[in-house]
Amino acid sequence: GENVEQHPSTLSVQEGDSAVIKCTYSDSASNYFPWYKQELGKRPQLIIDIRSNVGEKKDQRIAVTLNKTAKHFSLHITETQPEDSAVYFCAAKGVANAGGTSYGKLTFGQGTILTVHP
Amino acid sequence: SQTIHQWPATLVQPVGSPLSLECTVEGTSNPNLYWYRQAAGRGLQLLFYSVGIGQISSEVPQNLSASRPQDRQFILSSKKLLLSDSGFYLCAWSLWETQYFGPGTRLLVL
Fold it and tell me: Does B87 contact A at CB distance below 8 Å?
């Protein structure tokens, strides 16, 4: 099955700096890569995603890059703010079927605790 | 728009007691449904998924079970809780690729 490795496990930056979180995946057939942000005690929230036919996607201060050849993808946050402090998860969706129906089974990385100091 | 509900929000149960957690989705039909557990660390462990009524697949053998009695209802159960069942239980739904999580149930087994 799919295996996703996420690094670093913790990341501390000063407000205004950039933050980069990297993930590698093992299944070359994986074709969808979301990123979730989880604030303390809350549910994970999707912040950005990318599909395998795209190399980069940007949404304001957040961007994701994908290198299919190397099987890794990264989250980039620019101009970090204290409210960016949270746990970030990457995930990869492999090709899976159940009863003839495909479904979005995701394999998650272990998470990165991002702390942005004012 | 779609919304997902989970209850209860928090639960404290003694070891050996039964468990029933409920998840319902509104505003969509025939979603894929998932149960995850997040232990006191950070990882999300997929427990069960369902692509339709009565169709349940288990990812990890354990003392938990899941059922889907209705299209938008997903239930997580246990006959006898263990201390190791403590954690944050998240239900999620998807139609295609993107999964959306419910607010979660925080379970403490004492």
Answer: no
Average pLDDT value for chain A: 92
**Cα A107 from chain centre:** 11
Contact residues on chain A for B41, CB-CB shorter than 8 A: 110
Q: Tokens for B98?
A: 């993107």
Q: Tell me the CA end-to-end span of chain B in Å, nearest whole number.
A: 38
Portion 27-66 of A in contact with B at CB < 8 A: 32, 34, 36, 42-46, 49, 51
Confidence of residue A99 (pLDDT cuts 50, 70, 90): low
What is the structure's pLDDT at B43? 87
Instruction: Give A2-62 as a 3 state SS string.
Output: CCEEEECCEEEEECCCCEEEEEEECCCCCCEEEEEEECCCCCCEEEEEEECCCCEEEECCE
Q: Convert the pLDDT of each residue in A49-85 to its tens digit.
A: 999 888 999 999 999 999 999 999 999 999 999 999 9
Is A104's pLDDT higher than 70? no
Amino acid (1-letter code) at residue A102 = S
